[in-house]
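It is worth pausing here to work through a concrete case rather than discussing structure prediction in the abstract. The textbook approach is simple: state the sequence, then state the predicted structure, then interpret. We follow exactly that order.
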Amino acid sequence: MAIQATATPLARSVAETDWNALTEELDAYGGALTAPLLDPETCRTVADLYDHPEVFRSTVDMARHRFGSGQYRYFAYELPGLVTELRAALYPRLLPVARTWAARLGRPAPWPDTLEEWLAMCHAAGQVRPTPLLLRYGPGDWNALHRDLYGDLVFPLQVVIGLDVAHEDYTGGEFLLVEQRPRAQSRGMATTLPRGRGFVFTTRDRPVRSVRGWSAAPMRHGVSTVRTGRRHALGIVFHDAE
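Step two, the predicted structure:
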């Protein structure tokens, strides 16, 4: 599938990632960092949106739901322009990985060439609520291991972008991936999110080689306890919710 020409500064930032190298790392670990996507000023602007509740459709208190501690907010449609643009620019870069993984696991690959077509499929299936989100953590906050599954239609990859400077604005708060390995102990990976860079990771599982070919290794993600300061992150999910 040909990637459309990059026209905007944000789309050009997405294109600057070495997507072949990122794909290799995704294949090996289920998660990988992009090149810088957002500059520091844009990161501050996005983080400040958290204090404008009119931009969001709902707020989730993680402690109340026993998801951890802290809050996150789901954006409402229409999404902020930057979030819409990021979603549209990242989708075609991740689509080849999604299709390759589906083929390895012998699964259907229902994802069309454009995000617009994919979201139309989600909405036709009753998944009409937007899923991009903004997360805010303070001292003592954390996010339990989980998967972001909101209906039958699922895109197998998603992206989280750090909006603060680790070790300056906050300490702790590493992004966690835990893989349930076939017939073996689980494997964990902790990543400190650099400000402005995205971390691409699997939504549900990833293919791993086994003696009988390919097997699906379930994976969950979360955030370790923030020790000091305040941590913000922008989450880009490509399927909408029921």
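Step three, interpretation. Confidence is low (pLDDT under 50) at residues 1-6. Residues 81-104 form the longest helix (24 residues).
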